[in-house]
Write a structure and sequence with these properties.
It is built from 7 helices and 8 strands, in the order αααββαβαββαβαββ. It is of the alpha+beta class. The protein has a 6-stranded antiparallel sheet with strand order 3-4-5-8-7-6. A hairpin with a 2-residue loop joins strand 7 and strand 8.
């Protein structure tokens, strides 16, 4: 980083290979490889097969999001947390979900709908599908006392996460569950997680009006 920042390794220049860097810095090659991966993750360098590693002409700033636990999010605001499971069933995925997650016709999913409350008021409506082929323990898991997100974070690793944010108009069911008027504008997060290219879960999170998402990078 010092050499990149000082211009010794200028934007666009090719870095020495890992073996040369290991010898230059007196470090193990595995350590150099890890450092290079961190520089890639930070958007400072880019690596291309057969072309080597180059300093980016323009650093790529990336936003890193962690998967929050809504219980902790609510309690950090000084509010009392409460959870309610509304619906749970196991069956074949709907066509739109099977297409989105590339599921096979014989795969089964567990579908859960639950509400998270802050000081007795609806805070988040969670509508989640869990791929039971990838996560068989979820078939018998008890979600009556705590939400599936907490269980998944403890039980299942993930290697890839896709997140999208959007505004949505409350439909009849959402309006009843979250305590707003039909058609009211709400904030929606859709999140899909996978482990080594195998889909684990897809969830829609609907937030009450006034919710604000903050990220730092």
């Amino acid at each position: 980083m010092r050499r990149i920042a000082s211009g010794e390794w200028a934007p666009g220049s090719r870095l020495p290979n890992e073996l040369d860097l290991a010898q230059k810095f007196g470090a193990a090659r595995a350590t150099v490889n890890r450092a290079m991966r961190e520089l890639v993750d930070d958007g400072i360098v880019e690596r291309k097969r057969k072309a080597g590693t180059h300093v980016r002409s323009v650093p790529l700033r990336q936003i890193r999001l962690h998967i929050p636990v809504v219980r902790a999010e609510i309690e950090e605001q000084g509010a009392d947390y409460r959870y309610a499971l509304l619906h749970s069933n196991i069956g074949r995925p709907p066509d739109w979900l099977r297409a989105r997650l590339s599921l096979r016709p014989q795969d089964e999913v567990r579908h859960l709908t639950c509400i998270h409350f802050a000081d007795g008021n609806p805070y988040q409506l969670e509508d989640r599908w869990i791929n039971l082929t990838a996560t068989p323990l979820a078939r018998e898991a008890d979600f009556s006392q705590s939400g599936p997100s907490e269980w998944l974070i403890r039980q299942v690793p993930f290697s890839d996460v896709e997140v999208s944010f959007s505004a949505t108009a409350a439909d009849t069911e959402q309006a009843e569950n979250i305590g707003c008027g039909k058609g009211d504008p709400l904030f929606r997060i859709e999140r899909q997680t996978s482990w080594q290219h195998q889909p684990i879960t897809f969830v829609r999170l609907i937030y009450q009006r006034g919710y604000r998402l903050t990220s730092r990078y």
